[in-house]
TrEMBL record:
This is Sporulation protein. Keywords: Membrane, Transmembrane, Transmembrane helix. The chain crosses the membrane at residues 46-65, 77-97, 203-221, 250-270, 291-310, 330-355. The keyword Membrane applies. It comes from the Bacteria. The keyword Transmembrane applies.
Amino acid sequence: MERFWKTTLLLCLLYLASAMIINPIGCTAAAKDAVRLCLEVVIPSLFPFFVCSSLFISLGAANVLSRRLSRLMRPLFGVPGCGALAVVLGVISGYPVGAACAADLYTSGHCTKTEAHRLLAFCNNSGPLFVLGAVGIGMLGNQYLGTILYLSHITAALMTGLLFSRLGKNVSIPALPPASASAPSVKNAAAALGTAVGNAADTMLKVCGFVVLFAVFAAALPSYPGSQFVYACLEITGGLRSLLSTPLPVLLLLPLCAMFLSFSGVSVLMQTAGIVLPAGLSLRPYLLGKLVHGILSFILTFLLLYFFPAPQPTFALTAVPVPVPGTKELFVFALVSIAWYAIAIGILALAAWLFDRFDKHK
């Protein structure tokens, strides 16, 4: 099996090199567009969440959540309370912040490998900025359909978490010692901030590298019947744009978009692999979770469209280019996301407190 993957990778690299020699202008243009996408969208929308995730863990918020939310998170998803960090960040930020948070929780000793694998199965999701903005408004020109996609996407992710809550054996896997035990300087807020920014910058460099690489690879693909589906499997942004140009009925086209959106493409898979594999985690639970997530998203989107059809049955697919948010919009989105993050954590904490009160009165 290892020889098969090495051979496949070698063939892909040879194809990419040949395409760059045959069509250097097209590949260079694709690389430039990908770099601009990273600078204007990917980095501003993901970098703050990478920093926040690392800071929450290093400053002890994970310990507090683990004590407060275990009664809620463990019965539902089979993870400690600190797993709420990865779940909420995965819902409001985007790929691959949820996976990075799960890996950080494991390497810092706040969860076992089995629990980290359970988190990976459902906490790495697409964010509202991409689904509602880029896909809903930019590609579909229909905010209602974007809302349906996002609701089915997140609901299917939570359902996947419930299904995977018993993944693996609940054995005592020795976790790594907490970061504070091996690095006392992390207790200092300034040191924690510097460490968080450095780790986030390293992660962003990997993410942007994969974005550029797969943008060039996708640009080198030949056009043939069904190539839209191959494109969607490789890279989600351009793949969805290409998929939406196919003459399929909306009742089938939107569920397909939801399925590919949940799978996220090989590009996001490689981004996630670059984060979780160095942490000592496996990609198998993540891949299996994405498979289940995609199937559930397809079913939920189909049902929502069937019972709640779009109020505007005619809309121009891919007629509107994907908008690039400005600095003001991204700043507002970051503030709103942080507010929603705090509200979500507060609701979970309140629910855990109510559970505790209920148990004491029993």
